[in-house]
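## Example pair
The file below holds two records. Each record gives the amino-acid sequence first, followed by its structure token line.
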Amino acid sequence: MTDTKKTALHEEHAKLGASFTNFGGWDMPLKYSSELAEHKAVRSAAGIFDLSHMGEISVKGAQAGEFLDYALAGRISAIAVGKAKYSLICNEEGGIIDDLISYRLGDDEFLVVPNAGNADTVWGEFQKRAEGFDVELKNETAETSLIAVQGPTSEEILKAVGDDALRESLPGLGYYACLRGVLAGMDLLIARTGYTGEDGFEIYVPNEKAAELWAALLEAGKEHELVPCGLASRDSLRLEAGMPLYGNELSLDVTPFEAGLGPVVALKTKETFVGRDALAARKESGKTKSLVGLKGSGRRSARGGYPVLDASGATVGEVTSGAPSPSLGYPVAMAYVENEFAEPGTELSVDLRGKAEPFTVVELPFYSRKK
């Protein structure tokens, strides 16, 4: 049995009184005080997260873009330098191995960020798929920490620890874009992405500098109501924002089309990539189920694995994620349901341990930030 891995910031979390949980083989902070307070802080001000369990794979070389076009479902070679793209890595059958983000750092240089639990699998797939390409791969996961600052005041917090050049350039950094800038005296990669539905940033920092950056951000964030946040609030935030989680909404058992991620698949612009034939066939034949949002009219929340029922009580789907929505004040859930029940406004119910509770199909996301 392998030991649970710890991030370079584990000691900092312990000092702050975090409770921990095993996630993807890592000992990660679940919450520090109240997950509800942490959730609300991100919606109203800002939260800081340790995401160092995520993977980082460097892809360099004359055929870096071509390789990623072959390895992933999206057309990564079309990304401009300084931009990012959400994509999927699929198997030959079209099942989803992982969802990930690719950043283009230069003409022949990319950074690919897979999820924690899939990082080793993606690395193995990349090594196999790189055969025949002029490309250099490097797994930088073990040496890289990742800190996220999310929420309406996140830009002001980064400006407070940035140099003059960063303070000037940060407001112009668009969503799903990245730049190199100086934070707390360190030259770092800063991305404007996120998984909470709010404005925010993710900062890639060498392990040995992570604690210094974490402390600088916490100090600067005091006047901006920044609070440390764990995985519990991260999950409720991403659920409100309608963002899929691998292992819940995404898996080898579903293709991008069922998951509502058909536009991610570049069937029109790429002649060949792993899983293309299977995905083209699935698009042609049509999906049999769809990922939908469910809004509860009662107080009880649906949970992953609970059956979704039609008016007759027949099972027509299954919940993948569910929780009370702190921002909206009612239970929300995502679920896969048969296509005929996927139309917004459809009245369904969820079997909550023997009692059918009413839910209505709604469009995702449940929550959208004010711009």
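Second record, same layout:
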Amino acid sequence: MKPWVVILLLMQFLHHNLLAQQSYNNCNSALELCPNQLFSVTNIDANKTFCPGCEDDFTFCFTSNNSIWFTFTTNATGGAIQVDFSNLVFETNPGQDNALQAQLFSAAVPCNAASYTAVGNCVSNGTAPFSLISAALLPSTTYYIVVSGDMTGAGITAAAECSFDLSISGAAVDRPVPTITLTTGATSICLNDIFTANATVTDCPDTGNYTWFVNGIEVATTTLPTFQTSSLQDGAIISVETSCYLLCAEIVTTVTPAISVYSFPLDAGPDQTFATGSSTSLLGSTSAPVYSWSPTFYVSNPNSLTPIAFPEETTVFTLSATENGCTLEDYVIITITEELVFPTTFSPNDDQVNDIWEITGVSNYPNCFVRIFDRWGQEVFQSTGYSEQKAWDGTGKAGKLAEGVYFYIVELRDPDKQEFKGSISLIR
């Protein structure tokens, strides 16, 4: 195949694939025109649907060749309309025409040519920017615009194909500009206070959901125009957006000034663990002049930052502090564990009494590692985790072990890496 043939085929391929039919090539998928917006469109590769009553079975001041379709709906008052065609760029293939045809019309039955009624002027030879104009469109009515390429004159063998810009304006489609405002309970709050913002929209029919942002990051979507949060930091900016109008929706948005969030240092100290019957010092700190601990009945002095705590069970202590009218809270958990007790004897003789070597308090260390050795240093038992189901019952790999002294190593595998060693007397 000759190179020029390959190039021609490639150009044809690109033409038909990059400039394929637009969705608005058909009346039933006509492009919705929004007022005062610019649409870039084309009738390149468009065709026509021609049969009795079909969408292209009309004769205005022209007949269809390669039609594309647009639609719009007038507002509640109707009136004048102007549809502007601009930036016309025609295809320039040999034998191809270079003029557009256009008509505005109403349709009693959508996309049924037998029901069309032409409205306003008709353009049959638009080679430069032009307009469709009508002085009195009906209110709340759907209208259509059909655009086709001209195909007349000596030597013309192909209908015009053109890319162009399209816009619609006038009293019949004008609508109020929607706005949205935000009101807040306060612009200065305390840390962790609930902040409330309420949106008010005007000239905004068919309001959609409200999308809320904090510092530009989406945080919530609500059906009602109210937003609440207790997670704001100092300088936070709240914004909201919603859509107005079902057809040709418009997005409206607004922002609050920066929110002042007052805070101060407050720390209830690290969590602690100790055995039943012991006590510890709480290690609170704050810059606030007023503070207290709760519950009060487990601390030596609730108005001291470092009181002695003596809970009888695991307890959450709350340190509350107030400064400049703001009250904050922080929490510390004091965990009470049973003291570890390692029995020195047990009697696994199946009398249901002391039949296992039971370590008191070991359940608080589920990852502990327990090993038992005989007097020659041979391991006879091991377990990761130790409970009644995993406890040593005086047996080894070969069955019941003889009476005597055995030795244990218990690694708690806790943050302090505690390890306990000792001996056990097994009595039968």
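Notes on the second record: The mean pLDDT is 92. The two ends are 102 Å apart (CA to CA).
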